[in-house]
Design goal:
The complex is a heterodimer of chains A (114) and B (111).
Chain A (H helix, E strand, L loop, with lengths): L4 E3 L2 E4 L5 E6 L6 E8 L3 E9 L2 E5 L6 E5 L5 E5 L8 E8 L9 E2 L3 E5 L1
Parallel strand pairs in A: 2-11
Antiparallel strand pairs in A: 1-3, 3-8, 4-5, 4-9, 5-6, 7-8, 9-10, 9-11
Chain B lengths: L3 E3 L4 E4 L4 E7 L6 E7 L6 E6 L3 E5 L2 E6 L4 E6 L8 E8 L7 E2 L3 E6 L1
Parallel strand pairs in B: 2-11
Antiparallel strand pairs in B: 1-3, 3-8, 4-5, 4-9, 6-7, 7-8, 9-10, 9-11
The chains are: A mainly beta (114), B mainly beta (111).
């Protein structure tokens, strides 16, 4: 059974650009959550999608957005990149029954903003 | 005060030692408690989750929850060099609420 797949694994972008990250959940998982991981703040919740609807949202500016497709794949977009957006972006998928008690993470996308 | 506090370490122990990792929390609404292991350059890997106060054992790992003290622990018995990683505690108030993480404790097991 394939795990959570995130693409690309690494990205280097310039300040002011925008970026789109992709996440394919485990087959049968309909919930996808996104987290930002930095050395200073640790793992912080961005947003969660379930059945193409945003179910929860963290405390991040509107430059961070996401969406989910009918096949449960999800994308997140960051516009007008800032140096502070450099981080490891992780997505996690879970089934409806277990919810976030059994959330499985991908390898992450490491974004560097220069 | 952060909702979840976790000593970042680093913690260095000899092979075979018993390791104790801990987190405290302030939000009494938290009901489910998870432990994740994260190797360098990898995503977090779920080790186990607990719901009620008390102990839950899985192989060499034991998770302990004390809701009255708002304190959770993960014990690793017979620690191995392959256990060297960052351990993250996480908790949620309901199954469909977002994970709230501690900052992680970096563990090194020395052969």
């Amino acid at each position: 059974k394939a795990g959570v797949t995130q693409t690309p694994r690494y990205l280097i972008k310039t300040r002011g650009q925008q970026v789109t990250l992709s996440c394919s959940p485990i087959s049968g998982h309909r919930s996808v959550s996104w987290y930002q991981q930095t050395p200073g703040q640790g793992l912080q919740f961005l947003f969660e999608y379930f059945s193409e609807t945003q179910r929860n949202k963290g405390n991040f500016p509107g430059r961070f957005s996401g969406r989910q497709f009918s096949n449960s794949r999800s994308e997140m977009n960051v516009s007008t990149l800032e140096l502070g957006d450099s981080a490891l972006y992780l997505c996690a998928s879970s089934r409806r029954t277990e919810g976030n008690t059994e959330a499985f993470f991908g390898q992450g996308t490491r974004l560097t903003v220069v | 005060q952060k909702e979840v506090e976790q000593d970042p370490g680093p913690l260095s122990v000899p092979e075979g030692a018993i390791v104790s990792l801990n987190c405290t929390y302030s939000n009494s609404a938290f009901q489910y408690f998870m432990w994740y292991r994260q190797y360098s350059r990898k995503g977090p890997e779920l080790l186990m989750y607990t719901y009620s106060s008390g102990n839950k054992e899985d192989g060499r790992f034991t998770a302990q929850v004390d809701k009255s003290s708002k304190y959770i622990s993960l014990f690793i018995r017979d620690s191995q060099p392959s256990d060297s990683a960052t351990y993250l505690c996480a908790m949620i108030s309901g199954r469909n609420t977002p994970l709230v993480f501690g900052k992680g404790t970096r563990l090194s097991v020395i052969a």
